[in-house]
Design brief:
- The chain has a three-stranded antiparallel sheet with strand order 5-6-7, with helices on one face.
- It has 131 residues and is an alpha+beta fold.
- The radius of gyration is 16 Å and the shape is globular.
- The protein is 24% helix and 31% strand.
- It has one domain: Nuclear Transport Factor 2, Chain: A (Roll).
- This is GPW/gp25 family protein.
Length: 131
């Protein structure tokens, strides 16, 4: 069964079910891997400082076209480097929230092994500096 190549791993965030660690299988494992990559800031992991996404460098940026473009760049770069099981089809960031403190990053991707296409939305929160 070739879909097993997609993997099985601990669910993210880690949780228990019947006193056992819950697992994500196959395409769900890929999806959770994407969230893990995007949720990890570069330099956060001591033994692998280059792992993660540069998105977190934008946390104090103004929510505008340039920040949205940089977010798209960082997300695409991280996924192309750290998730070899997918092809990134499209990344689009847009502002959300009443005060512009949130970016919604839409990601369309294709799982290479199964040729199934998926879409997910990753919310990223900007923290406006006090003025």
């Amino acid at each position: 069964m070739p879909v097993q190549v997609l993997g099985v791993g601990w669910e993210f965030p880690v949780a228990l079910k019947d006193e056992r660690i819950r697992v994500a299988r196959y395409e769900a494992c890929v999806r959770q891997s994407i969230f893990l990559i995007l949720s990890t800031a570069k330099g956060e992991r001591v033994m692998r400082p280059d792992f993660g996404c540069g998105l977190h460098d934008l946390v104090f940026s103004v929510n505008g076209p340039s920040t949205q473009g940089m977010a798209e760049f960082h997300v695409r770069e991280a996924l192309e480097k750290w998730e070899p099981r997918i092809d990134v089809m499209r990344v689009q960031a847009s502002g959300a929230g009443g005060y512009g403190e949130q970016l919604l990053i839409e990601i369309d991707y294709r799982v290479r092994l199964t040729d199934n296409r998926f879409n997910l939305v990753y919310p990223f929160y900007l923290d406006r500096p006090l003025t």
